[in-house]
Amino acid sequence: MKQLLRTTDPTQMVYAKALLSGEGIDCFEMDVHMSVLEGSLGILPRRLMVRDDDLAQARRILTDNDFELEDL
Question: Residue 18: its pLDDT value, please?
Answer without folding.
Answer: 97
